[in-house]
Amino acid sequence: MSNSSDYVISNQAGSGFRNELNQVLGDIKSLNSGPAQSGVTPANQGPTNKSAHMLWADTTNNLLKVRNGSNNDWITLGSLGTNMGMASLSASNVQNFTATIQTAGEIISNADTKTKIAEGVENSRPLTPTVGDLRVNRDTKLAEVFTNSTRDSAVGSWLSLYSGAKIDIFHCTSPGTTSTGTFIPEDGRTLFLVICTGGGGGAGGVKVHGTTPSGGAPDYGGNYWGSSGGGGAGTAIRIYTREELGASASYTIGGRGAGSSSPYVNGGRGDTSVFTPTGTGAGAIAIEGRFGGQSTAAYATTNSSTMTSRPGWHGDGHMGMINCHGEKGEFQTLNNYTGATASGFGLVAMNASGGSTFWGKGPGAGANGTWSNDSTTGGGSGTHGQDGILVVLSW
What we know:
The protein has 2 helices and 21 strands. It is mostly beta strands. The chain has 3 domains: 1-107, no CATH class; 119-161; 163-395. A 5-stranded antiparallel beta sheet has the order 8-21-10-13-18. Residues 210-222 and 336-344 have low confidence and may be disordered.
């Protein structure tokens, strides 16, 4: 078509009138189709004689445009391709859009399968997000929404949407054996609370000494001797972000301290538990729940009443946001009771208490001291402490 009609038909002879009318009708029929002239500003491209609200099929850019009401620019309505770039009411194929869809009403999907939302890596987040923006973060494997929370910055924060807490508990693979392993965070978890407790100290033995008094029940003719308790291990507690934790973290679970193998030797100390993240940032710090100490044997080399058992010392937490000391083992002072002095004690055990931990008398606790009231057996061997533990709560 001519793309140049002024849509005004002047008085003229019949053939000239017919030619001009055909030109006008042709431009109307073809929506004033024609190229976008080179070297001309976009607002001035198109039909030679422009008017407000005129349609123009831009064959250069394959777009349908309409002139604005001020007749000084073009407004693009859509592509001259299939459905003008818009979704068909009956289309079953995927429709792709590159522009923003904005509505003051609701967007309702009646599909019973899924609704696809935007997704991308963390670095591809919008530079100027608005409250309510929703996307899937490929790095964290979580949906996230932009809110007006000022947690991350004054303009707002991306908050991840995830399920409740997950708990992982790691023990020694066999009792008394220090164990190692690797913690791998589950996809979609971004915050981790780690509680790391070492192994508790074992108790020393006790050698019975002194004169065995005569008599029957309730004294049974024995002397009353005891060793002190083992020390409780320390506990470190720390929170890590996903960046600080990294793709994995190595760990060591401290085994328990052994009890004495005979009445004449000391108990064994526990081992330290360690949690070491592989991430980056100031908070990517290894933490330790340090071991509880052992108690020594009582009267192992001498009958002197001063040769009492030393209690196991407590362990401590190291580099946690919260560091908890274990409890020192109880000092056994009820020793060297004989004869009438011991009247009424009978066979009642008077064991010194082992040191407690963050978990009370649970993981990492020290062994109770040994107690013996029978001189005929030569004393008693000590008992073992409790193994350490690692607990990870993930959100």
